[in-house]
Description:
InterPro entries: Peptidase_A8. By secondary structure, this protein is mostly helical.
Amino acid sequence: MAAIAVVGYGLDQWTKAEAVAHLDPNDPPSWLGGLFTLRLLRNPGAAFSMGSTATVLISLFAVAMLLVVCVWAVPRARHRWSLIACGMLIAGICGNLTDRIFRAPGPLRGHVVDFISVPHFAVFNVADIFITCTAILVVVISIFGHHDEEGHGSDDTVKGERDEKEEM
């Protein structure tokens, strides 16, 4: 989990630094007939630029969510996929929160660097990818359950523990 969080955070910060250093907002490079464009934007809001006047509240919410993940979710994560989800979520939250704290116009009001664009969708960054993939992973885990090293699902493990206690 920690390795995913550190590598994911580093990848997000590195790609943002490269985007700021090399992308021209007036001349975005495009590939595959416009399917993929690197369009440099600075986003004061949340997804799809919603809440652009509430940057401080979004920043405080991110701090609260980071605390919830680190203090509540991480200690309860016992399975591989839960740990992976926690690491990805920490990487994503920290990546965008770093922008909100350290980028202009100032602490808790900083604009997030977004630069990945696909048609008919918001412009986003690597941190956003980690947050979105975490949401998808949590849904998949919720639907299909998690499996321990022996391939038993969560219901099988609970039943197996119950059977062992009854035999005693």
